[in-house]
Amino acid sequence: MSTVAENTILVSEKAKAKVMQLMQDAEIVNDSSYFLRVGVVGGGCSGLSYKLDFDNEIKPMDQVFEDNGVKVVTDLKSFLYLVNTELDFSDGLNGKGFYFNNPNASRSCGCGESFAV
């Protein structure tokens, strides 16, 4: 687990490894202009869903963080939901994929892909 810092987005070791693998697969691992964009969008059975993508364009009002060697960018509105959230990755039998340990979520759905505050 990453060192706890205030008002940031954290990235676990497993998530970092998977992000780097995906960047390598997309042939952007050596391009420092690319980063992981994390967002929150309306939808899902609990009301809000997470969104992950690679991007290389910083927009006005974006919040930029770096944890565990991964550059993470989010828009200001999404950051209000993501403060001190940790991005993690699971490859276990109960499901594979990225998931968020979000201390701001009051509840999440059974599939873990949406949440409410």
Number of strands: 9
How many domains? 1
CATH superfamily: HesB-like domain
Q: Which topology does CATH recognise?
A: Hypothetical Protein Aq_1857, Chain: A
Q: Return the CATH architecture.
A: Sandwich
Provide the spatial order of strands within the biggest beta sheet: 4-5-2-3-9-8
Terminal residue distance? 24 Å
**Biggest β-sheet: count, sense, barrel?**
6 strands, mixed
Mean pLDDT: 86
Q: Helix amount, in percent? A: 10-25%
Quaternary arrangement of the chains shown?
Answer: single chain
Alpha-carbon Rg, integer: 14 Å
What structural class should be given to the helix and strand makeup?
alpha+beta
Shape: globular
User: Which CATH class?
Assistant: Mainly Beta
Weakly predicted, low-confidence segments: none
Summarize the structure.
This protein has 117 residues and is α+β, with helices and mostly antiparallel strands. Helix content is 17%, strand content 44%.
